[in-house]
Design brief:
The chain is 44% helix and 12% strand. With 400 residues, the chain is of the alpha/beta class.
């Protein structure tokens, strides 16, 4: 096992000695994915039960029905890409590369250790918190692995992290800060631009100017967007910065993929855009997964296989995908630089984090436990005063 792949804390965990104890724990938050085919149905059951990502009528019954109905098809898709999701393997590789760089960049907060917290599969937030406590960590950073913020992704993962702290009795065990979004961080943009350049190099030099660059991001239900979720504008900001950094004349579009279930989703749909491009006579298309930090089923199956066949049927003769960030050295640099800049700022979270969506009805949204740099009581008083002055909600966890 790696240092992050600890799914169960020991029955009586012993705390690390001072010489071994990590000074800073970094919790890498992500959706996760089924590691084996037997994990597919439990993963789908968790996904369709989460009202923070998708709200269904009669969800208690309809969610499990959809999950079980989709299981055979989804198992087949995972079988076709090797029998499970590689997201844990890549997240661990990213974590190892990140902390190795951080120990050099930020010796005052070293040693750093990463912990993986997936939303719908193990290792969970409970696993990460228990292991951090066993390791003697006191300073913790919740680092979303979704570059662009959404209440249904980062928000859901953070809410689950705070609930896990209550379940495990570790509400007051750590001082927290959040890296809750990084859509235009220069290091991320540079790493993503590098993948686009590598993608363009898959085409013959004489054809590269003919390539249309199609950025594809995971879609969200429209009811999430209609509440005021910032995801579309942050994805658009990432695309714009990459295009500017790329400095080529190729046209580009943005579309959304992976919609599922009987609700309306954000569009235009990547699949439909590919069909329409083919109908227009476009022959060269490079798809860029702008909102994914590693390969998983949405890239290896949906973009590569399913949409590759759609492109072929539509008459697109040269359809390629830019490589995912995975464990590319420049992306590992980026992760470390994002954390370094966050530590240097001394901030508990981004300035945008306390701002709830205009239509938000979730009282747990935008909370944070024991923010770094202040005593809890003082923090609560200060943030409450600021909230009264600005009209903003106080971003902290209630005591019960």
């Amino acid at each position: 096992m790696t240092d992050a792949q600890t799914f169960q804390a020991p029955a009586s965990p012993s705390r690390s000695s001072d010489s071994q104890r990590p000074r800073t724990g970094i919790v890498m938050l992500n959706l996760g994915g089924p590691e084996t085919l037997d994990d597919v149905q439990p993963f789908l059951l968790e996904l369709f039960a989460d009202r923070e990502i998708i709200q269904l009528p009669f969800q208690r019954w309809l969610g499990p029905f959809i999950a079980r109905r989709r299981t055979p098809k989804v198992r087949g898709l995972y079988a076709s890409i090797g029998g499970g999701s590689p997201i844990l393997r890549y997240t661990q590789a990213q974590g190892r590369g990140m902390v190795a760089r951080l120990d050099r960049l930020c010796p005052s907060t070293a040693p750093h250790k990463f912990y993986v917290a997936f939303r719908y599969t193990r290792p969970t937030s409970d696993d990460a918190l228990r292991q951090m406590h066993a390791d003697g960590v006191e300073r913790a950073i919740a680092f979303t692995q979704y570059p662009q913020f959404s209440c249904s992704t980062t928000g859901s993962s953070l809410n689950e992290l705070w609930r896990a702290a209550g379940r495990t009795g570790l509400r007051d065990a750590f001082q927290w800060s959040l890296i809750d979004r990084w859509p235009v961080h220069p290091a991320f943009i540079e790493a993503m631009t590098g993948t686009v350049r590598d993608g363009l190099e898959q085409f013959e030099p004489a054809d590269r100017e003919k390539v249309l660059i199609l950025f594809s991001a995971h879609s969200l239900p429209l009811d999430v967007i209609d509440r005021g979720d910032s995801y579309p504008q942050e994805v658009g900001a990432s695309v714009q910065r990459v295009v500017e950094r790329l400095a080529v004349s190729n046209p580009h579009l943005l579309a959304y993929q992976s919609d599922v279930g009987p609700v309306r989703w954000l569009g235009p749909r990547t699949e439909e855009v590919i069909r329409r491009l083919g109908a227009r006579g476009q022959k060269h298309v490079l798809v860029v997964p702008i909102a994914f930090t590693s390969d998983h089923i949405e890239t290896l199956s949906e973009l590569d296989r399913e949409y590759g066949e759609v492109a072929h049927q539509a008459g697109i003769t040269h359809y390629k995908r830019a490589p995912a960030l995975n464990d590319r050295p420049r992306f590992l640099d980026a992760l470390a630089e994002i954390v370094r800049d966050h530590l240097d700022s001394g901030a508990a979270h981004s300035t945008q984090y306390p701002m709830r969506c205009a239509g938000c009805t979730n009282p747990q949204c935008r909370n944070i436990l024991s923010p770094v740099g202040t005593k809890s009581g003082a923090r609560n008083q200060e943030s409450g005063a600021r909230g009264r002055e600005s009209g903003a909600a106080t971003p902290r966890i209630p005591s019960s």
